[in-house]
Structures are given as structure tokens and as C-alpha cells.
Amino acid sequence: MQRTKVAILGAGFITDIHVESYHRFIPEAEVVAVYARNKDKAKAFAEKYHIPQWFDNVDELLQKSGCEVVDICLPNFLHAETTLKAAKAGKHVIIEKPLAVTLEEADAMIDACKKANVKLMYAEELCFAPKYERVRHLVKEGAVGKVYMLKQAEKHSGPHGDWFYDIKQAGGGVLMDMGCHAFGWFFWMLNNAKVKSVSASMATVLHGGRTQGEDNSVVIVEFENGVTAVAENSWAKHGGMDDKSEVYGTEGVIYADLFLGNAALAYSKNGYGYAMEKADTTAGWSFPIFEEVFNQGYPHELKHFIECVQQNKEPLVTGELGRAVLEVIYAAYAAAGQGKKISLPFHAKVDRPIDLWLKP
Amino acid sequence: MQRTKVAILGAGFITDIHVESYHRFIPEAEVVAVYARNKDKAKAFAEKYHIPQWFDNVDELLQKSGCEVVDICLPNFLHAETTLKAAKAGKHVIIEKPLAVTLEEADAMIDACKKANVKLMYAEELCFAPKYERVRHLVKEGAVGKVYMLKQAEKHSGPHGDWFYDIKQAGGGVLMDMGCHAFGWFFWMLNNAKVKSVSASMATVLHGGRTQGEDNSVVIVEFENGVTAVAENSWAKHGGMDDKSEVYGTEGVIYADLFLGNAALAYSKNGYGYAMEKADTTAGWSFPIFEEVFNQGYPHELKHFIECVQQNKEPLVTGELGRAVLEVIYAAYAAAGQGKKISLPFHAKVDRPIDLWLKP
Amino acid sequence: MQRTKVAILGAGFITDIHVESYHRFIPEAEVVAVYARNKDKAKAFAEKYHIPQWFDNVDELLQKSGCEVVDICLPNFLHAETTLKAAKAGKHVIIEKPLAVTLEEADAMIDACKKANVKLMYAEELCFAPKYERVRHLVKEGAVGKVYMLKQAEKHSGPHGDWFYDIKQAGGGVLMDMGCHAFGWFFWMLNNAKVKSVSASMATVLHGGRTQGEDNSVVIVEFENGVTAVAENSWAKHGGMDDKSEVYGTEGVIYADLFLGNAALAYSKNGYGYAMEKADTTAGWSFPIFEEVFNQGYPHELKHFIECVQQNKEPLVTGELGRAVLEVIYAAYAAAGQGKKISLPFHAKVDRPIDLWLKP
Amino acid sequence: MQRTKVAILGAGFITDIHVESYHRFIPEAEVVAVYARNKDKAKAFAEKYHIPQWFDNVDELLQKSGCEVVDICLPNFLHAETTLKAAKAGKHVIIEKPLAVTLEEADAMIDACKKANVKLMYAEELCFAPKYERVRHLVKEGAVGKVYMLKQAEKHSGPHGDWFYDIKQAGGGVLMDMGCHAFGWFFWMLNNAKVKSVSASMATVLHGGRTQGEDNSVVIVEFENGVTAVAENSWAKHGGMDDKSEVYGTEGVIYADLFLGNAALAYSKNGYGYAMEKADTTAGWSFPIFEEVFNQGYPHELKHFIECVQQNKEPLVTGELGRAVLEVIYAAYAAAGQGKKISLPFHAKVDRPIDLWLKP
What we know:
The structure is a homotetramer.
Chain A: E1 4-9, H1 13-25, E2 29-35, H2 39-48, E3 53-55, H3 58-64, E4 69-72, H4 79-88, E5 92-96, H5 103-115, E6 120-123, H6 130-140, E7 147-155, H7 167-170, H8 174-189, E8 195-203, E9 216-223, E10 228-234, E11 242-249, E12 252-257, E13 265-268, E14 284-286, H9 292-295, H10 298-311, H11 319-338, E15 342-343, H12 355-358
Parallel strand pairs in A: 1-2, 1-4, 2-3, 4-5, 5-6, 7-10
Antiparallel strand pairs in A: 7-11, 8-9, 8-15, 9-10, 11-12, 13-14
């Protein structure tokens, strides 16, 4: 079996998930190097996962690690810069959501990868989550007739890392962090249908002391094909992760729930170690999730990309889709800022998307 | 026990529910007469429920039936006219949703009842549904901290009566018919907080051949107290009634489901008689509801009104609340029509609310 | 409306439930007196519920209260003695489960009520619980074909009162306290079919320091009509009340859950007042039940009995059914004690049923 | 990566599952040959899955295929004979449930593999199903205190293949086919605790025209450590597969549901292709399962065995456990036949376990 050499960039929460996926489910890949901005963190990560090389300098990694693929799990503001370097070095790129902070960055990244003839995949794992993929296939089989409404919600009580709360690094709040999942999944379900307009409501309800970013948002996306889509996202929702999708068609409906609906149901008087992402407590009733990484579709996603690299195929989830998601994010911030529906295509020259809400 | 004399106006689906409620749960009331526009229907209804008098003329009923209360379960376009007559005749009025077709009618009704010194109650049963009232009390106890978001959804595959589909009689589609539940419940949960703005998305996705009205809508209501509320309503959703509410607070969350979540879960190879309102089939898996009338809060609602009449107390759910709901409906149609957030207070002179969407 | 005069005997947990039922849902009844062994408790209970008379002497109550009905909510060991007195005084009797401690007592009670020409109703509320009655009607409609298996489970973490743990007062442990619900419901569902045999497994797993009684039991009942029935009962199950029933037929299946399945789902960081019977905590996730008394069928049960008294009809749930339940309890203790299936009819002369397990 | 050569014996329902598991999740294994009794079936299976060799003669396969492992997915009556041959040929053996038809066969198989120094693994996939393994780890962490009761249920409407219904080939009915899952899981959860006694109730309720075997059974197993375990199994339950486990401890409880509890919830007016194993229909409401093979633990199970072979480790689920399961099956049939608890150790000389019920 041919093994593709992967360098992981980042050493945070999501990087653990990627490495677990490679190690347990993707024998076709070999993680050969890890990069973190902090030298000790890079080293510790490499040791924990038996990764042979570690770096605290991206350029050095690109030159020396021998990797064919870079898997970018860095904070948003580093996405564009790192992708451009990787493309220049001739490496294939898979990049965590959101694609970039600005539309200009997104365009530059897509362009650079094309010119360098390297693959660029936008790592939207909801496009691979097994339960949601089951739903998509049901819809394709005609189970619910013609789709007229989609809903997607992802909610928890706030991210792990500090940078998420700093809008200069992140570009926005929960919409930037988690709204992108909903938008990406809408495009995926609707075969990249065109968006007609976006309406949005946003607020900072729980983390006002820590961030200027919104921590609760509701966005309505109207597509040109007549489908209405509703995205709900929150960093203010206690009780563990919620990730739900709903499909409404003229002949039926499907509800799918990745966490509560997959979990066992437990009552523990004194609690235990871990229930699911962001569960504050495990005492009393809880919903202990299982195979959390698999059930969110990370292995399926990463395996797909390695296959694309090995067989020279185009990734199904493209940089263009990532850019389209970012355009909806722009439109949603603008809609919330201006208090009206924003029609697409939409573009505005800003340093970060959230400025469209904060300084409308 | 003193028994208050009630005349029922209407003989359709909702009237059955009111009469079952009076008969089984409200010994303090006595249904003495029924009115229907169709003579035979009035008579048949009276016979079915052992109601001593029946009328096909409202004026005659008001003069002769000896009723103290009229319970109006007529199509929307008759709400104002009938209420004005009842008030003039000195009868207390309880009226099914929505309060009226236009804001002008609503104002006239409230005014007339005040002048005639009769009680006017807006019959929003969600304010009495036992599971939702349990939720409201949990919130008041502080179970979820400060509320920042509410959601309410009511969906099925379309109403029974023809007049619902005729926008001249109904004034609008599913928003008029079922959106009013969500808005009424929002005001109830938030102690009549003021609305700041309304955004909306609407479409006719299933019943286009039968109605000009919208049969699917999503509305975002922003309150002045910072709460965001989302109303989802549909006449296009198969598989039986859905009625769900969610409360999000800074220290917790509550999900409540009136139908699927109360029901038993049954698998029947060949089906059986009745599962729940609007269930297309009972073969295969189904969710058979129980004590459907009680669990929706009708007895609690009607009992409350009879108590108000007997003890001369003000109803908790007022004509003013019904008017406020109608104002949100106006704003929602306008928002959908103009593609922007509509700020409240909002008023427009129209024949029916839906004109704000159809002819923006 | 004619009002039947009821005297309540007892002032514990279940008595609150009965009085709430009478007051809210049964205008045809009037609670005229309460008895408790403890004078202060009787007085306090009467004051709390505005009951005009209170007694600490049963004979006195029977002579002076003017009641037509006695509603017996006393500890098991007082059931027979009190029923015999009531019958002698010409009062109708409704009695909480189990009917009696011994089969001899049961026979004497049934006999005495017949001779005195007073009604005796065995208060098995599961025969009236709305969700379970919905299930029974579905089965009668043929929804699941021919029934071949029933399951009923009732579980919590142990009763409120001390006397439940004293086998001299209670006659046994959880089987006596809660197994009777399952057996009563089996007879109800199967139209008083005859039992062929009983197998059982019992243990004291949590309350060994406090009781000699079993606090966990599993009983298999085989009926002559070929139906297998499984009763699971526990005083050792944390996390609040569980009450579930399942029906298996040749053409379908029905699952019904009275508590978790009716409840809202709440997450509360710091908890709130009350979730459901026996819920240890309300912090974290919980299942807040609503209309708990109604949903368990108490009003329906008591209303039925008052109707029987007023209209001189035979109660549907008879003393004979209560006796048949007790016979199954005897057989179950014997089966657990002897380690074999016990065939019915079964009788053994013991002071209390649990002796058949403890001293086989 | 070293790849272990596997020969698959059988070409039925379960064989598809094993091959999907090897191909998608176990790169360490290589399926080199397939055997089926029917030549055409063997060939078709090989072609479908791109397996290079196919055989209709086991001896030939053992000599020529070059396999290191045989994976036996044949009807029960062939288990012993095939295992003995494989051991003799020096092949490692992994074998589908139940281990064998008789205890004598089981002993011979264990003995033969030991003498031949080949590994024998009993393929109980519930010991690897991710949700159940999550539950087991929660219990080990102390989430529910000391376990006092286990429940396991597996039910559907009857197997695919004809041989299951022929007690000469299968040795029994649903207890043999699916009860073994429950018993295997009990031993697994309780660290191979010793069984004290077994009680059982059996009946043929749906498939009486097709089989002499029981198609519904309830078995109570009492362990020496004081744990009570209840196994429910059925071939008479409509509406698709049910596989549920429950753990009751002195400080909590865990409920886990492999099918309904993992599935999406769909309503489809006209139905679609496939919902889950044994779902009769997909019209109306259904529970579409996803990653069915993974969620039942097959890949985890087979991967474990390949690792054992490659690293010369003892499989965690042994032939001895498979034998212990068979002993409980014997005892359960005897208990049902004799109508009493059967104490273990238990042995009886019979041609097939079900004889202990049919001819007690």
C-alpha cells in the first residue's frame, strides 16, 4: 500500500481529531511532521502521537519534512498565508473551516493552488458525517420528494482556544466558527445551488465580557431554486454539543441528530470522566457519545482527500465551496448589521467579516 | 355549583375540541346553544353533543339563547363582526386565533368589549398547554438563567377546512393560521415584552394549486429586551402534527415537544384508526398521541375564562395580546414582501395582512 | 350536580395525589373528611386542603363524617381491617394497591363488601393512565395483531415512607409495592386471562441496610392464552421514576413511557425545584414531567369510581382483580424462593407473601 | 504493512458484513478466498468482492488458498466440523455465533485449536459494538456504582436464510440465533463471572408454520456475584431490528440502543430503498440506520483478531466464552422445558440444545 506523507499544521483540539483519524482509519496516509507556533507544544504533540518530525517554522517544514500534503488546522488568520506558502512549495492542501478570513484571501488561495497544480480541499466534515450522508442519500433516492427547506444547527457553550474570542484572529464569532458548517452543508445538499438572499439576527448573550463577536446567530438563506435554509449557531448553549440537521420535502421529512441522537442515555449519581464535547458535567443524566471522531465524519473526509491525492481526482468539497460559504458569512453579517435581506452575489471590502455587523 | 351558559359559534374541527373540553373538564360551564352558518350542520352538531338549542342566525342566538358567554370558533373574516354584535348584546367573548384579519378590526373589537364592559379573551391555547406551562414555570424558577432565545414551531400538512386556503376569508396562509401561536407564546413567555423588529421568509411549496397563501414560513422576531425568537410554521410537513418549543438561557436549555414527545411509539403492519392530527397513515411506525385535547391545553384555557367570568377577573390572555400578535403578522408579511427587517410599531392600511407580501 | 361525599383515609404521598384529583377533576365528589393515625397530621392535612372534618379514629370517622365513600390510602397491613369496618358501616370502598397483605384478607374483604352490598374498587391507576389506555385501545383496534408478549416496568430509588421497608407492615418489598402495578395491568390488558405459571428472580441490592425486603425483581408470567408477560420492578434505580409498558403482537409493537417519554428535556446548570418523582437532582440534564397526577390516570380512576357509586355500576377494576394480583405476588415470591416455575392457582398459608421467598 | 491472508467460509448475509469490514476498515487483512457449498454462489461472491479464489470444497480451500486465517460464517451444524479441519490444517479460526451446536462439539473445537496451536476467536460483535463498548467503559469508570442488573434484547421479524428455521441445522430457534448475543455480552460485561442459575420462558408465536423452534424467549440469568441478567430475544417483532442494552448499578443506570437510538427519523410518503435490517417498510415514519456494519462493531472485532494473529496475542473473546454461552443456552432450554430454574454447571447429552425444551 502506497502511503501519502502528511504534515499536520497546528496542535490544538481539531488536530487531535485529525491525527486520530489518520492513525485509526487511513492506512493510506502517514503523518510525517507536525508544526506548532510554540516549539514545546510541537514537540509534545509529536511525542504523544509518535510523529517523527516537529517544527515551529512553516517554511522549514515545507522544505524539509518530505510531506506531500499539508493539513492546515491553524487559527483563521493564518489560513491564507499558510496555504499560499504550501502551494508555492508544491504541496497539496486540506484546510479546516472557514476557508479564510476575507474573500480576497479566499480568491488568492484558490488561485494559487490552481496555478501550482496542487489540490485544495475545504475540510467540511459535515459533508462526510455518516448520519448526514445517510440523510443526503435518502433525499437523492426521493424519500422526501422535492426539498423545500433545510435546517442545520450547531451549538455549544463556547470554544476551547482563546483566539476564537479575538475577532482580529478569527474574523468573527460563532457564525465564522460554526455557521460555516451549516452553509457548507446547505451547498452540499443542494448541489452548489446559488444563494438568492441572506437575512440574519445576531447577538452577544453569554460571552460579552470576553469577546466583541456574536455568540448566538440565526440566519435565513434563500436559494434561487426556491429552498429556504435556516442556520442556528450558538456558543451560549449549555449541556454539551448539539449538531442537528433537518430536511423538509414535499413528500416527507428527515430529522438527524449527531450527538443526543447517537448517544447512550446515562444517569450517574457522582459523574464520570467524559460525556461529549463541551458537556459541563457528567453527574445526573447525560448523553455519552461514542466514536465521536468517526461519527462526525473526520476519517471519511480525510480518507477522501488522500484518495484524491493518490488517484489525482478533484476533491468533492472544493475551495470554491469554501469561498461560497464565506460569501454567505459576509452577507449574514451585513444583513444583521443593516437589518435587511442581502442579495447575492455580495462583496464588501473589509478587514474581517464581522466588521459588516459591528460597523455597518 | 354555579354554571355559566356558553354559546358556541361554529361547528368545525376546533369546535369539537372546545365542546369536548367543556363537557369533560369544565363543570362550571354549560353549553346551551350552537350556531353554524349552515342550518343542517348546526342541528347535527347540537344533536351530537346534546346541546339544547341551535341557530343559523347569530343575532337570533344572541337574543334568544340566554347565553352569558359566546365562544367564537368561526373563520377569521367573521371574527370582528361577530365580536361586535356579541359585545353589543352584553355577552362575554372568547375568540379563537387569530384575533381578527386587520388591525383596525382588532382595535374595534377591543374597544367595543371595553365599552360594553364584557370580557374579551384571546384563546391562545399554547399559553395553557400543560407541558409548555411546565416549561414556563421552570424558566420562572431560574432553571435556565436569563432567556436569550425562544423557538416555536407548528407544522402539519395543511388545514381541514377550505376557507383556510382562501386568502379573502383567512387574510393569509400558514402564518395567519399557525404563526399566531408562536407569536402569542413569545409574548406570554416574555411577559408582553415589546418587539423591536421582524424578519421573515415565506414560500408556497406544496399547496400552490389551491392557494395564493404561503404554506411555509420562518420568522425571526427581535425583542427590545434582547431576546431573539424564531417561529417556524408549515402546512407542507407530512407525518402528522409537530408542535415544539425551545427555550435557551444563559444557564441552560429546555426542549419540549407536544406530539412526538408525548406519544407512544407504535409499529403496525396494517395500520389502525387514528394516530394524531394530520397523520397521513398509521401503517408502519407511528406516534399515537393521547388525551390530545387536554395535552394542548384547551380545557385549561376555557376553564380559566369561565372562572374570569364567574369571578369577574381579567383574562390572562387578552385582546391586546391578540392584537400584538396580529401586528407581528403584519410586520412579518411586510418583511417577507420588502426583503428587510421591519421595525415595530408597524401599521399599514391593507384589506388583509398577506397583501403586504403579495403586493409589497 | 349531585356530589358524593368522600372520606380519605391516610395522609401520605398518595393521599395528596387523590385529593388533588378530586379537587381539580372530579366535581362530582366532595372530600368531607380525612383520617390519619397521627392527630396532628390529620389536622394539618385537613387544613392544607380545606377539608371540613379530620379524625384520628376510623370508627369515629365512619359514624360521624357522613361520608358515602371511603378512599383507603393506608399502609398495606391496615387494608383488610379498615375495609371490613367500612363495609360494615355501609360505605363504598376504593382501596390503593395492593389489595391486602394475604389472600385470606383479600377473600374476607371481597366477601364483606358483597354482603354489605357496597362497591369495592381496586385502585390500579395504570388501568386509567391516559397513555396506557391509548395503547390498550390501539391493541383492541387490531393495531398489532394478536398479542404474544407484554412488558411492564416501574422503577425508582425507593419509597418515601418508612413502613414500606418494614416487611411486617408491607408484607414484602418492591414486588408488593410496585410489582402489583405490572400484574394488574397484565390482567387488564388481557381481559382477566388466567395465569398458567410464574417464575421470578429477586434480590436486595441497594437497601440491604434498611430492609429485609427485595428491592429489585424480575418476574415472568405465562398466561393460559399463550401470552408471556415480564414485570420488572426496582427500588434501586436512580434518576427518577421509570414507568414503561410494551406490547408485542404478531403484526406490530407499541412502546409507551409515562415519565421520560412525556417529559420536556431540560439542562439546568444549577438546578431548579422539582423534575419528577424521585429525581435525585435537577442540575444537569433532567426530564421535567408535567400534569403528573393526570398523566398517571388518578383523576380518571377516581372519577370512574364516583360514577359507579352514583349510577350504581360495577367498577371495572374489581377486588377480584386485586386478589388475582396478590396471587401472582404469592407465586412470584414462591418461585424466587424455590427456584422454579410456580403453577397457578397457587395458595400457601403465610403471614405475609415475602415469607415464601425468605423462608421457602 | 503486513497483510494477513483470510479465507471467508460462507456466502450469506453475515459474510457480506465481514467482507465489507475487511475491505473498508482492516487494511492489515487481505481476503484471498471464499468458500460456499454452492459453486455458483461462491463464484458470484468472489466476483462481487474481487476475491481472487473461490472454492466449493473446504479441504481444497485449506490446502490451496494460502490463507492463514479462516473466518467461518457457515450454518451452525457445520461449525465444529469446519473448525476441526481448519485447526488440523494449521489455520487460525474466527467463528460466527453460536460457537457450536453441542457442548461436546464446543469442547472438541477448543481442544483442537489448542493442540494445533492456532488461535480460536468467538466472533461476538456486541463485545466490540462502539456504543456498547462506550457503556462498558463508563461502567468501569464507576459511572453507575456496583452493577446489579443487566438487560440485553435483540429482536426482529425472523432471519433471512432457511436453515435458521430447521432445528436440525440450527440446533434451536431464536435463543440459539440471538440469545447467544445477550449471554456473550453478559459474560463480557461481568468479566466472565460464573452463572448460578437460569430460568426461561419460550414460545413459538409467529413462525409456527415454518419451524419447530422457539421464536420468542425471555431468559433470566442469575450470576454468582449477585447480578441478575435478563435476555429478551425474538423473531416475531416487526418494524426492523431492535438491539438494546441496559445496565443498572447502585449509583446510576445506562440505556443504549443500537438501531432506533442511532438512526435518523424519517417520514416518507412513498418510501425509499432501505431503512435498516428487517424493516418491513420504509413508507410512513422510519428509522434509517447509518454505517450499520461499523455501528454493530464488526470492523472492530475482525481488526482485533487480525491483530491477535499478527502479534501472537490471545483474542479477548475466546472459544471458552463461546462455550459458556452455549452452556447457558442448554440451561435455558432445560429451564423452559422443565419449568424450573436450572443451576449451573449444567450438562445434558442431546443432539441439539432445543431437545431439552421440546422433549424435556
